[in-house]
Amino acid sequence: MAVTKLRSSLERNQLLFTVFASLAAFSCYYCMYAFRRPFAAAGYDGAQLQVAIAGRLIEAKTIFLIAQVLGYCVSKFAGVKFCSELPRARLGGALLACIGVSWLALLGFAVLPVGWKPVALFFNGMPLGVVWGLVVRYLEGRKVSELLLAALSCSYILASGEVKRIGAWLLEKGVAEYWMPFTTGALFVIPFAASVGLLSLLPPPSAEDEMLRARRQVMNRGERLAFAKRFLPGLILLCFFYLFLTAYRDFRDSYQSDLFAEMGIADAAAFSRTERPVAFGVMLLLGLAFLVKGARRGLATVCLLMISGMVVLGASTLMFRAGKIGGETWMMAGGFGAYLTYVPFGSVLFDRIIAATRFSGTAVFAIYLADALGYSGSVGMMLYRDVFAGEASRLEFFRDFSLWLAIGGLPLLLAASVYFLGRAKLAPGS
């Protein structure tokens, strides 16, 4: 009775729906990160696990990270089909199954011999890669999608630092390095399940939503191919840039504790000090994009924000190299710029493209197409740094990578923006 009444209220009251859906999505993906990122807070310096490639030793932590990212990448490729075809009624069950498998894999990471630990992390990453797409399926195609997806995006920026802080705290309390990820996950199992239950209460998009943002429906193989063929030049530009952007974001996320150590920042609270302003700043700007009415104008606004992000990343990196700002300030400013460009790829960019071009389908397909390619670049970048740029410290490598990403990313973003805006059709309010 209470559930039926709540569903009815969510359908009638737009403000209540927006707040409820934002909190449920934020909580769900925030909790997911407790199963993905806490292990990166440890160094694993004593691990008897090394692999030599081209005469260079690959460190144990890099091996662990690559194993998890490979699993994550595989699921992104699978998610192109899985997330775009799964019926809405099965989304909740799929989310719970993903976290259950991932948590069991972290138990394997704790108890298996060191040589098998990368295998455990591979299977930990596999189910987690589709969680984003499943949550987005609840939120896309609505007139308030910018607000909902901004809240969802804020979750992983904030959670990345917070769960590593929890992991570092558990290590300080005496929890063993290999048991720390499983223990962190145990703290979030029940909140995750509760969040999935709340998401399942959300009503489907209304007739007004479909009129303003185009109808969102599952896409079969033929429809996915039709989308790719129709927008191929623009997708190539975006995906090529996103390959390097994802590698950059994942390197920053995975080695943030090492970068802080090289800059002389030993306080675990630094994770929160740098990531909280980034999360809320990005969420605020993407949320304000909701105020821009019209599908084509909305797409232009998102493109402008992404281009601005690369400008901020490049400018802050030049200031850091010149000694005008400190390391923590640079991590905050550079992170804000990078995430202002990165976040729309997984949220409002493709939602706006579909709305502006009036293509009937789901944004999740395009999101996962970009993600699958992006995480392939992440693996390549980790290997490149250890094998071909091993003489440079992680901080030096990351600083140079930041500058080249900004310089190379701007023309690609500009060209992609011109392409998609040129193909936008007149929609209600455009």
From TrEMBL:
Domain of life assignment: Bacteria
Keyword Iron: no
Keywords: Membrane, Transmembrane, Transmembrane helix
InterPro entries: DUF5690 (IPR043745)
Membrane-crossing segments per the record: 15-35, 91-112, 118-135, 147-166, 178-204, 225-245, 278-295, 302-323, 329-350, 362-383, 403-422
Signal sequence coordinates: none
UniProt keyword Cell wall biogenesis/degradation, yes or no: no
Xref: PROSITE patterns: PROKAR_LIPOPROTEIN
Protein name as catalogued: DUF5690 family protein
Originating species: Luteolibacter arcticus
